[in-house]
Amino acid sequence: MIVAFSIAPSGGSDGTDSVHDAVAAAVKVVRDSGLPNQTDSMFTTIEGDWDEVFAVVKAATEAVGQFGSRVSLVLKADIRPGRTGEMTGKVERLEQAIIRAES
């Protein structure tokens, strides 16, 4: 499965709207997991089986929870049993389709 998720704290005591330290804590959890992952400006995407992926999402959420009294989690999942390598495979197929369309 592939899961794209975004986690943000709220209710922090410092009065700023910056969440980069909290996001960095979450991304560290994801990267330390060893599962295939990618982070962009809006989401972190991770690939693995159900239990692996959701254990990482839970741990990342708990890491962000240290930065505020509330945590917001947005999650989108693509569940395709028996498939691996889809995080890159889907993009490769998209790029091939674009090339075919331009020909």
From TrEMBL:
Looking up InterPro entries in the UniProt record yields: MTH1187/YkoF-like (IPR029756), Thiamine_BP (IPR002767), UPF0045_domain (IPR051614)
Q: The Thiamine-binding protein domain covers which part of the protein? A: 3-94
Superkingdom: Bacteria
The record's listing under Pfam families reads: Thiamine_BP
- List the GO terms this entry assigns under cellular component, sorted alphabetically: cytosol
Give the protein family: Belongs to the UPF0045 family.
Q: Which PANTHER family match?
A: UPF0045 PROTEIN ECM15
Record-given protein name: Uncharacterized protein (TIGR00106 family)
